[in-house]
Amino acid sequence: MADFLSTTVSGLSTVQRALDVLSHNVANAYTEGYTRQNVVIATRTPQETGQGAVGTGSALTDISRTFDQFLGQTLQGALSEQGRLGSRDLILGQMDEIVSADENNLSSRLTTFFNSAQDVANAPSDLAVRTAFLGEARTMAQQIQAMDRRLADVEGGLVQRAMRVGGEINEMTSEIAKLNETILDSRRRFPDHQPNDLLDRRDLLLRNLAEKVDIKTYEDGDGNINISIGSGQSLVNAERATPVGVGNTSAGLSIHVGNSDVTNLVSGGELGGLMRVKEEELEPRRAELGRMVFSFATRFNEVHGQGVDMDGNAGTATFFNVTALNTPVAAEPKVSPPAFGVSVSITDVTQLTANDYTLKYEGSQWNLYKSGQSTAIQSPVAASPIALDGVEITYAALPNPPAAGDPDRIAIRPMAGEMSSLAVNVGNAREIAAAAVGEGPGDNSNMLKLTAISTETNVVQGSMSLTEAFTVFIADFGAEARGVSVSLEAQQLVVKQTEDRLQSVVGVNLDEEAANLMRLQNHYLALSKSMSIGETLFQSLLQAAS
Amino acid sequence: MDSIDSRISSSVFFNQGLSGMSNAQAGIAKAMEEISSGRRDIRASNDPVAAASIVDLGRSVSRLEQYQRNADFAEARHGLTENALQSITEVLNRAREVAIQFNSGGQSDVSRNALRSELGQLRDQLLSELNTQDERGDYIFSGSRVKDKPYSGATATFLGGAAAGTPLAIEVAEGGRQVQAGWIASGFEGVLQALNDMADPAGPNTVDTARFDTIVQASDQAMLMRTEVGGAMRAVELARTDNEGELYGYTTALSSLRDTDYPSAITELNKHTLLLQATQSTMAKVQGLSLFNEI
User: Fold this and answer.
1) What does the radius of gyration of chain A's CA atoms come to, in whole angstroms?
2) Of A393, A468, B30, B114, which has the most beta carbons under 10 Å away?
3) CA separation for the pair A365, A381 (Å, rounded)
């Protein structure tokens, strides 16, 4: 009879334990990263007797978690891509507000300016009209400056964001390293059981980390999760985490892991997306706008210098404040940081591109890179002066190797600063050179030439008129931005579907738990009944014996 | 979701309801914005082709509107010039009549003096018309030297003998289509001199052929200039009609790209409202359906 009772008690405690696990499931039904836990119930060791093996009840042997390694890995990859597209979409969206906003873009600003120039052509001797035109010119210059400032703000925000993401990555990797340690410790103490909740927590952190940066993970023999980025630079090795450093110098953003520069190796996740969108979209598009503004202003200056003002004096060839052709500049922001006598001058507007260049010291020599190309265009860099796409780059002496404190990277941005410093140098409306040489103040011949700049071809490189160039810019930028936002939507769907699939395997279904609860309730009732019957039998036996 | 995933976790149920509601709300907000602003939300990032077209069309519309303003301006110049030339023609016609009267027999000294006096007035009137100024005080017949008086007196040479330069031309349509908007009234020295001579009480008693011819020639020159002004006016009219046609086409295209299509915006609004209501009631029902209620 003692066996009967102990068998029943074993069942009761098994059911109680199962109820504990069930309530843990219910409590965490909406906990992020939680995976449903199952109880493994087995028979206890039977008692060998002459009549046969008598069962001794049930025991809970393990609490396992349901996990799908494959779906987990898929989700990790999908999240990296979502993070990359998300940050790209965010930055392109901010740029879109600035460059293509209806009625407030470069095209409409230029149109307003040229319309005002037409008014001067209609009444060249009217001082009021001339003054209004100067006002429009100043407004346009201010708006272009503001546009550039807003783009610079987007860039500043991007850099801040990249540095914040770097901080988040470091928090997560150090937590993962700690979890590796705790998990290993738990496994050493209980080799037959898994620390389920800790594993869930680590898996969730891995997914969150993957969204921030593209990572590679592998599990070592001890069950540690090791993480690397780039071309294998370790972020987490067992219980050790190596922080990433996101640095911002005037030559650009950089990412380091320990001493290795992984700037060009990180391309996924939020961080990779931010790095790439900066160099693939934000910088070249801003340079492209700068090129259009510079080409327009340079041409305007040239034509203005060919006319005469209201008093018959020669017109100024610096109506707009832009860098003059064939004038070497060796200062920020065009040369960054200024060093080694590096300078850049613009030699031919019709050949000009929106490219930026970078001088980099690599291995044992200086190489020259062009924006958008990962291989050097000159390796080693050619002798000074170097003529490229309508610009000329010169340098005095590039030290080999650079001394301590010398830069090993110099960014050369020919169009930088042209929009931010655009201004109108003419203050007196009489000085607008509306007339041709030899004509009186009623002549508008030169003004008509100035208004014709808006449709003149070859003002901007590529045999395009200014207006065509801007339309092409908008269409090209828009196609990229649209492509990214469509891909992001598709990727969000992929993430959602993968999450749903994973949830369908590992998530908690409350109805299922309720059904299990009913089952366990019935089970418990049956065992209680056995217990009371056992007790009754025992009692009657005692009474009979007394 | 395919048949493999017959098991659905409670959090998926919950999240699906939630995302369904926020999608519907976003749809409602977008439709409301379109309806209240009258504009569709077109950006390069959501419709690059339309955005580029809007940039092009917007610029074309703005330029055409400017050309229409230029045309107004050219018309005003033409009106002013035409008025002055009409007066000049009338003055010269009257001068011709007076000259004929002057030469006819039976003129007494008294009547001749009366005619001399009228010729003097005609001379002053002609001088004044040739020196017509616009609203800014600029001389309209001085070519580009608008600040210089064409004839400083009845015996002066045009602009004191200086070059008049190019008369004003105004751009009135795309492609650099220009019309003349200023004329140079040089060559009226002869007629002014003749009228001045005849008005002189000590002057000759007959208008000789040479003097008479200068009046006729000046009259012809004024007529020729009026013909040119008339031609320029017609050119402006033609440009204006062309511009209007283009403007209509461009603004229609712009409006169809940019303005809210109300029937479809309202349909979108209704659709998303219905969707939100349906999702809300479904969610309430599903969340209420739990086996725990039965225990």
Assistant:
1) 37
2) A393
3) 8
Helix (H, G, I), strand (E, B) or coil at B244: helix
A349 and A393 in contact (C-beta within 8 Å)?
A: no
Chain A residues closer than 8 Å to B43 by CB: 96-97, 100-101, 478, 481
**DSSP SS3 for A330:** coil
Which alpha helices (DSSP H) does chain B contain, by range? 10-37, 48-103, 109-130, 189-199, 209-258, 262-288
Tell me the one-letter amino acid at B93: N
Find the residue in B nearest to A90 (Cα). Answer: B45
What is the band of B16 on the pLDDT scale with cuts at 50, 70, 90? confident
Which helix or strand (DSSP H or E) is residue A249 part of?
A: strand A244-249
Backbone angles phi, psi at A279, to 5 degrees: -85, -20
Q: Write out the DSSP string of A368-383.
A: EEETT-SS-SBSSPPS
**CB–CB of B62 and A111 under 8 A?**
yes
Contact B12 A30 (CB under 8 A): no
Q: Which of B42, B8, B231 is nearest to A507 (CA)?
A: B8
- From B290's Cα to the closest Cα of chain A, the distance in A is 6
ipTM of the complex: 0.85
**3-class DSSP assignment, residue A143:** helix
Please state, as a whole number, how many other Cβ atoms lie within 10 Å of the Cβ of residue B92.
Answer: 26
Mean pLDDT per block of 10 residues along chain A (546 residues) reads: 79 94 93 93 90 90 89 94 96 90 79 95 94 95 93 94 96 97 94 92 95 93 91 92 89 85 89 93 92 94 96 96 95 92 93 90 91 88 93 93 89 93 95 95 95 86 80 91 94 93 90 92 93 88 85
**Least CB-CB distance to A452: which of B146, B164, B176?**
B176
Long-range contact set of residues A242-248: C-beta below 8 Å, sequence gap at least 24: A242/A173, A243/A170, A243/A173, A243/A174, A244/A166, A244/A169, A244/A170, A244/A213, A245/A166, A246/A162, A246/A163, A246/A165, A246/A166, A246/A271, A248/A159, A248/A162, A248/A163
Single out the residue of B205, B211, B210 nearest to residue B106, CA to CA.
Answer: B205
Q: What is the DSSP letter of A354?
A: S
In this structure, the number of other CB atoms found within 10 A of the CB of residue A81 comes to 22
pTM: 0.86
Please name the residue ranges forming H helices in A314-407: none
Query: How many whole angstroms from its chain centre is CA A325?
Result: 37
In three-state secondary structure terms, A182 is: helix
